[in-house]
User: Fold this.
Amino acid sequence: MALPSAMTTNEGAEPVEAIADFMAGFSLEATRPSTDEVAALAAIAPSGTRVYVSAVPTRPVQEAVETAAQLRKAGFEPVPHLAARAFACGRALDDFLARISGEAGVVRLLIIAGDHEEPAGDFRSALEVIDGGALQRHGIREIGIAGYPDGHPRILQQDLDRALADKIRSAEAPGMAVHIVSQFCFDAQAIVQWIAHLRDFGLEHPVRIGLAGPTNLATLLRYAKRCGVRASAQSLARQAGLLRQLFAMSAPDALVRRLAQARAQLHLGDVAPHFFSFGGLLRTARWTEAVAQRRIALEAGGGFRVEPPRAETGEAPAAAH
Assistant:
C-alpha cells in the first residue's frame, strides 16, 4: 500500500480537517511524570485523554500505581505498561493488579515482556501474563499489545506476526478487547505498509500509531538507537542534515500530515496517534492539543506549523517545527 501524493498548501481547509480528524482521540506516553506535571497537564489535554505510563526497568513497579492514581484524579484515563519480566511471581502480579485497579480504577493495560534481560521470576513473556487469568480477575477489560512498524532488532517478522496473533487470540477468548500500540517510527510509508500488513493478516483491531513528540533530533536519534528503531532512524539522520540542526527543536508535523492524508484516502481502519514525550510531556501535550484544535498553518514543504495561541488565553506556546 503506497502513500497518496503529498498535499500542497493550495488544497484549502480539507487537509487541516484531515489532520484534526486524525488527531482526535490522541494518546500520550509519560515516564515518571511529577505531581506538578500531572496537574499542569490537566489544563492542557482534554479530560479522558489516555495517558500511558511507561514501565521503567530500574524503578519499582508499584510507582506506576501512584502515577496512575494521580492521572485518574486529574481526569485522565491511565493506561499503565505491565512489563511481565518485572514480576517475581504470580502473587506479586496479583498485588500490582489489585492496587492498580482499586486505587486508580485502571481497566486498560499495555502488556509487554519488558526490557529486563533476565526475568525477575515466573514470567518471561507478555503471553504468559495474558494466559494466566489474573487480568480478568482484577477487572481489566482491554489490553494493548506492542507492534513494530520498523521490525524488531532481535525477532523475525514471521515470529512477530505469530506472537501478535497468539496474544490477541488469548486475550479475546475470555472476552477482553485488544488494541495495538506501535513502537515510534519516523517513516510514514513504513507505518502505512505495516498497518496494511496487519489488515491483510486479518487483524482489524484499533491501532495507536507511535510517534515522537516535539523534541530535538539528537534526543530522537538517541532513543531510536536504544529502542532498535533502525531503518527510520537512518532516514531521520539523513533528513537532519547539518550537525548544528541536531539540537534544534523538531516536531512531527510532516509525518502527522502524511499519515492524516493516508487515513483519509486509504483503508487503514481504526487508527489514532500515540505520542511518546521523551521527558517533555507538557511540551508534547501543548503541541498535540494545538494541532487537534486546528491551530495550524500548512506549509509548502509538506508539513505545517503550530500557530501561536491567542493572547487572551494566556497559553504557553506549543513547540513549532
About this structure: Residues 65 and 100 are 5 Å apart (CA to CA). The two ends are 28 Å apart (CA to CA). The chain has one domain: 9-306. Confidence is low (pLDDT under 50) at residues 7-12.
